[in-house]
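User: Run a structure prediction on this.
Assistant: Running it now.
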Amino acid sequence: MDALSLRVAPGEIYGLLGSNGAGKTTTLRMLATLLRPDGGTIHIDGIDALRAPMKARGRLAYVPAEAGLPERLTPREVVTLFAQIQGVTRPKKRAGELLEMLGAGPIASTPCGQLSTGQKRRVVLARALVHAPPLLLLDEPTDGLDVQGRAEILALMRRLAGEGRAVLMSSHIMGEVEAVCGRVGIVVSGKKVAEGTLPQLLEQTGTCDLSAAFLALSS
């Protein structure tokens, strides 16, 4: 990454756009304290994430594009385990509530190895939300979901932001970014080349939609 700087405020959904290999996932992994940057600073909810990464992890949730679920465990077992690790009161109850909220209740007792891509996505989201973190880092959050599932996840993101959480999402689906993001940052070869609200980006590029603005700014 090349001196990339961004800030996501409580209650905001920020969209990170870029072509494959632009650095979106690398950025999210650094913010999640899974990769250490060569320089700069990262602050999560007032915590210096480079000096206190474990403390910072307690204030965020990172949802990667890949599921990474144990094939033999059930969704209920996975989410309950993460609730226990995070010190959540009544972890099994919390796991059941989240799985139901995300539409994964019917498959809560099915081994994760037998789940579809969309079902795994719901379980991963439940796992991430188990400790009610103030910051969500979402890498392609609707990947593998059908139309209804995408709509439900976008509605959930709006609700979480409405509760005061900060949401940073990367996505290649322009319509979803237009629908939920208050601000958008565009990354090219590890460098942020533009940032602003959708109207600001459209005015800057003289285009009529985000796809056209993205192409203009990333070319």
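The radius of gyration is 17 Å.
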